[in-house]
Amino acid sequence: MDNENKNREHWGSRLGFILACLGSAVGLGNVWRFSTTAGENGGGAFLIVYLLIVLIIGLPVVLAEFTIGRKAQSDVVGAFEKLAPGKPWKIMGYMGVATGFIILSFYSVIAGWVMKYFFGYVTGAIANVPGQDFTSYFTSFIGQRYEPVIWQFIFMTLTIGVVIAGVKKGIEAANKLLMPLLGVLLVVLSIYSLTLGGAKEGLTFLFYPDWDKLFDPQVILAALGQAFFSLSLGMGTLITFGGYLSREHKLPSAALSVGLLDSSVAIISGVLIFPAVFAFGQDPSSGPGLVFMTLPNVFEQISAGMLVGALFFFLLFAAALSSSVSLLEVTVAYFMRKLQWSRKQTVVLIGGIIFLLGIPSSLAQGAIPITVMGRDFLTFMDQLSGNVLLPLGGVIIALFMGWAWKKEEALRDSDLGNTWVGNVWIWIVRIIAPLAILIIFLNKIGIIE
Ligand code: TYR
């Protein structure tokens, strides 16, 4: 081991690594973004395409990121510089850092809304919403100029605090307890949600595909973006996390666990949300506010609803925090090496810039109409990062793994070995994944039908 490696922070255990990746993967993407996107893209058809993409493209690229990260033991730019010196692959690294800025900027806005709801349940404010009109409650809250920005600021400050504390202490510890708790609560609540009268419609919406939509380029692109966003894939988060992994840990089963658990959380939260949407006569395609307008109706029905609501939004907040920490870590790991600054200085500077970048996303919700290409600023940033930058990053990562490495070395370094699974994986990263993503892009733009 060279000096640099000896001084690098490492995960305490393989479980710690898997939990950190899960902490990154499971977050607002599974609950807020999944339900919004599934709702806007027809439910069942979206779900099928999403699951296929996770399986065929997502998991192989997750493994590629782990492999690159563990081999390079560096940040996302450094990894490519180290493994392919002087070659243009490191463009992927810069793109990853930029994507981290973009995602965290609006992610912290939504996480701020989650904190507002948590406190709304703790203080009982949500119990006193006039006429239980949670839709107006939500829209008037996000339409304000200052309050949502203050919540966003608090959330960013917490993220900064955790990232300053460092990889092992900060990230590993919190995930161990809170994530399983979130899983359990989601299961319990989804069972309850099925009793509210919208089960048949909700489950049909989520699981029964409208076959016409299955081939709708918009639905397919949305599913691709959702798969990458939810798996924290395509911007080097998993390269960065793999970079804190020592050599002896096995990668393929880690990739599989992260992928399966992440998708399960998304599906379970769909089973919680969509039956409730129909039970309370709401519109599944009502956009980014869906969760915030629907779930309060569910908690309203439960006798200890205030408590359950507080618990739910607290756990969702915790899940969001472990994701935002991973997003910030990607950019900080790079700038710390590049600027030769201390962790603390770097985190505060980068975190501050990201906070500022997030303000227009917050204001665009009603206070000031900021739109880009016909979308409000938040939706624009969300779609730019999720549907374009992450899958594009995925293409480069897959091509790098498939073509810049010798096949034998790729098979060895990924721990797959020369097995049939290994060979399938090689061809997926070499051809199938990049080609599929390209076709989805071109199809959406209308270049191919
Ligand atoms: N996967 C996270 C979620 O679902 C969000 C995220 C996206 C985190 C990309 C990291 C990342 O690199 O909430």
What brief labels describe this structure?
449 residues; SNS_sf; mainly alpha; 76% helix; Sodium/glucose cotransporter; 2 strands; single chain; YocR/YhdH-like; two-stranded antiparallel ribbon
Structure in a nutshell:
This protein has helices at residues 3-7, 14-25, 28-40, 44-72, 76-83, 91-123, 134-142, 147-165, 167-193, 199-207, 217-230, 237-242, 252-279, 290-301, 305-339, 343-363, 377-404, 407-413, 420-445; strands at residues 371-372, 375-376. It is mostly helical.
Task: Describe the protein.
This is Sodium-dependent transporter. It is a multi-pass membrane protein. With 449 residues, this protein is mainly α. It has a single domain (16-274, 288-445), classed as Sodium/glucose cotransporter. 76% of the residues lie in helices and 1% in strands. It is built from 19 helices and two strands. It has helices at residues 3-7, 14-25, 28-40, 44-72, 76-83, 91-123, 134-142, 147-165, 167-193, 199-207, 217-230, 237-242, 252-279, 290-301, 305-339, 343-363, 377-404, 407-413, 420-445; strands at 371-372, 375-376. Strands 1-2 form a two-stranded antiparallel sheet. Helix 17 packs antiparallel against helix 19. It is globular. It starts with a helix and ends with a helix. The model has no long low-confidence stretch (mean pLDDT 92). Residues 24-25, 27-30, 103, 229-230, 232, 235, 237, 323, 326-327 line the site of tyrosine.
The level of helicity is over 70%
**CATH topology descriptor:** Sodium/glucose cotransporter
Number of E-state strands: 2
Under the CATH scheme, the architecture is Up-down Bundle
Strand order of the largest sheet: 1-2
What is the N-to-C order of secondary-structure elements (H for helix, E for strand)? HHHHHHHHHHHHHHHHEEHHH
Radius of gyration: 21 Å
